[in-house]
């Protein structure tokens, strides 16, 4: 089956979430479980109430079965996100956030919002941060220069969103630069 044109140039958000689900997160298990081997590695043993680090996909599976509580990452709280929103709206550069913050936040808020303090406020802050960062991305792309582009602290979802436009724009700029160089060379030869 052929993919639609729009999906051929980029990774879909669900695919980015799948990639992000490999990252480790702390849980508080509600069941005991011996060390278990998976394709991605061995995790455990789980001994309540001791915290344990497991991949997000495993934490989500255990959470859906009510066999653990997920410990929110240190950055997934109102104070941290409010500070980052202030930085996004007052500074020209992107604030530093975890590379896959958008995907991880969505996964955790969808599955474990009862384990996170103020999930609704966090959702609003994440939405505002995303909008502020998108505005900065649009401004940065308007000032695109084929010789240099610096957008430090972009996250995976943001890179994925601008990739199709950026690749096409860089192709056009390169083509225009080559034409301009060829025209200048032709004029120089005519002298």
Q: CA-to-CA gap between the ends?
A: 57 Å
Number of strands: 5
Main pleated-sheet profile: 3 strands, antiparallel
The sequence of SSEs as H and E is HHEEEEHEHHHH
Mean of pLDDT? 86
Strand content bin: 5-15%
Give the fraction of residues assigned to helices.
Answer: 40-55%
Report low-confidence residues grouped into runs of 5 or more: none
Principal-axis shape: elongated
Return the CATH topology.
Ribosomal Protein L9, domain 1
> How many alpha or pi helices?
7
Q: Regarding CATH, which class?
A: Alpha Beta
What does this structure look like?
Helix 2 crosses helix 5 (101-111) and helix 4 runs parallel beside helix 6 (119-142). The termini are far apart. With 191 residues, the protein is mainly alpha-helical. It has helices at 5-8, 13-20, 56-64, 78-90, 101-111, 119-142, 156-190, and strands at residues 24-29, 36-38, 41-43, 52-55, 68-70. It is 54% helix and 10% strand. 23% of the residues are buried. The strands form two sheets. The chain has a three-stranded antiparallel β-sheet with strand order 4-1-5. This is DNA replication complex GINS protein PSF2. It comes from Auriscalpium vulgare.
